[in-house]
Amino acid sequence: MRGGKQLLLFAALILWVKCQQRPDVIIRPDLKNFFNGDLFYLICSNSGSTVKWYLNDVILPETNNTLRKAAASPADSGKYVCESDGAKSNECSITVHEYTPSASLTIETGGPVMPTKGAVRLKIENEDGLKGWMCKVNRGEETKTVKLKLTENSVSFVFQPTELKVPETIYWCTNSTEECRSNQITLWTTDKDVMLEMYPWPAVAGESLTLRCIVWGSDQVRKSVFLRNDTEISTVTGSTHTITIVDMSDMGRYKCHATYRYSAQTRKLPHQKDSDTQYLSVQVPPVRATLSKDMLCSCSSCGNDMPYRYYKKNGQSWTMLPKDQKPDRSGTYRCRAVGEFMRTLPSASVDYSAGVPLVGSLIGILVIVLLVGGAFVVYFAMKNRRNSQEAVYEDVGLQLRGEQNYEELQKVRGRGGEYDTLHPEASGTDRKGEYAPLKRAEMQEEEYHDLGAQGATGGDGGYEALQKSEMQQGEYHSLGAPGAAGGGGGYEALKKSGMQEGEYQTLDAKKST
Question: Is the pTM higher than 0.70?
Answer without folding.
Answer: no
